[in-house]
Design a protein that fits this description.
alpha+beta
Length: about 750
Amino acid sequence: MKLSTVALLLAASVTPGFAQSQTAAPSTSGITPWTPTDAIRAAYASFGPRDPLWSPDSGRLTYLAPNEDLLSVDPGNGKVSVLVDHTHLDSVMNPKINEKDKDHRSRYHTAAYHFSPDSRRILFDAGGELWDYTLATGTGVNIGSTGAGSGDDPKFAPTLAAVSYLKDHNIYVRNLSGGPELNLTNTHDPAVLNGEVDWVYEEELDTRSNYFWSPDSKNIAYLQANETKVPLYPIVDWNETHATTDMQRYPQPGDPNPDVRIGIVSSSGGGTRWIKLPLSGGNDYIPRFGWVNEHTVWIETLLRDHKHLAIYFADARSGATRRVFSETADKFFDESYDLTFLSKSPEFLLTSWRDGHTHIYRYSFNAANPLSADATLENEVESGNYEVSEIEGVNEAGQTIFYQSNDGDVLQQNVWGVKYDGSGKRKITTAHGVNKGTFSPNGLFFALENSDIITPATLSVCNSGGLCNNYATVKPVTNHAVRAPIQLTLKAEDGTDLYATLLLPEGATSAASVPLINEPYGGPHAQTVEDRYNPAIFVDQMFAEHGFAVLHVDNRGMGGRGRDFEYACYHNFGPVQLTDQLSAIDQVLAKYPQLDAKRLGWSGWSWGGTFTLYAMTHSDRFIAGIDGAPVTDWRNYDSIYTERYMGLPAEQEQIYKDFSVNTSAGNLHGHLLMIHGTGDDNVHLANTIQFIQQLVNKNIPYDLQLYPRKTHSLAGLEARQHFYARSLAHFETYLMNAK
């Protein structure tokens, strides 16, 4: 459950619109009122290129333009040129894929193209059609179809001899010099995934690939997930004359998980050699793995209780393993599963919040015989009262680690650099707001995206010293008024700071004249109140122009504030979060007398949708609410996410009952609008149906809005326009005009 509010959901589906040079500030003339259509269209035009890609030789930064040109940025001067003209890509970049595959490619940032290791060729992945494009000649060759949509995961072999991809749940290799494709795994059982990432690993462990070439291209290490025991969930498409059903493998709390193991297969074919790992079949996880060298594989394991994490080194020839690192959490880990192995020294980097905040730790191991001894902790590279968001790159020649953190201001993010030994820590970016860096492989350059709460993204290419050249700027809205919300620091009952934003209607000063919409997310790991540009700002502007105030508060149990702040959600999916939100609302009402305490509304999506239902069934203060794609019984959601915070249902029966809003549905207060996409493969439609059943049993009225075929992101201009219009009408009817 990674998407936070409807606001953040926009990031999963918008089309980029940006200028190639600095754009003038918004005009103050010709201002027009906001409408739902204007709000969503502004959001769709408010993003620059996402996920820029560096060539392996660090010689160019690339991204796709709105017209589908593949553009190249010179890291030395920021000059932009066309690397591959869109006319060469028209047939490649417009694949015919279904709603689910389109959503997954956008939601999980599936790359549309891949560089060869020598940076001279590009492999374009067009919804399952693979094209090998040679930059020097400007020619592309179709090397085959995977028959897949979002799970084909093509890769060049390190030696450039072949291309690998997934098809029919198996790993295939095709020699680039010609010849037929070679099927390496050959199980052909829809419940057995070889190298393919299943839904729950992709969503909850952020796994993006489950097979990797050895450095010498002789072998492939892959994860096999056997889903035979995982229950099936039906996702029905009623748009056809004869309805169809997609049966999704979806483990719910307490259900069997995919049974996973790591295998080694020769790239020329033959049987698989299985790594001997001490896992309890179907219960534990392998979030990450890869190659240490051509004979050694590293494997990260996480026990099902989410309290025990380990790293193993395995001999790829014999399958023997040794545990070289382990860590135990009091309650759960912070979802930081990535490891960075250095190529020029036998060391790896990982992040951990073992000291209360997420920081970088450096470990060394025996290069000559990795399985001979445990890894040795060299040092905690940096420390302090802040969070490291991620390791963004390493300059191995200069022994410098680059990372992103909120050091100095929890609402802002900057790029930092530090030496391996912890010396020379320096802040590289200085622009106000949130700065996100994507480093080149050699660590000498990085792509920078900077924005703040009111300013769209500026994109630059920078050297590691922080000298930058702008190459694209998102066009600001020029025909509407866009006002910055008020940033607030409020208090929880225990005195903890809670950060919030409040957008008031312009000119509203008379007492109790303004209804207030509270729109939190509330769930773990997310941080929604940041000094970062968010397309939902246009939706908030729309509500403000129609006379509503909009409040966003990050409560205890959410992310970005350290281990103890997030631990508040452990075995607590409602009481602590609602207490914080009510406390925040009371402080805002006291500070701004123009707000009407008798006209309070609540809106949320995903975990936030669940929060809407929890608030409206555990408080009588909210007279109108909107919930989108809610989990109404936590036994309905997936095993990895739910058990991380709530444990197993058999062991925590009362907790699951207490935090199920189906249980409290009879206490619903206010006018409720329920929203769900019928194709949602994340939070299933069954959740909304079950809650409705409880309302029917209690003779409680409700409003319902379904979106056929739409997934959890509710993607698409038409659906979003309809959704925002429906939301505005609901709050105008039941909140603005409340009696």
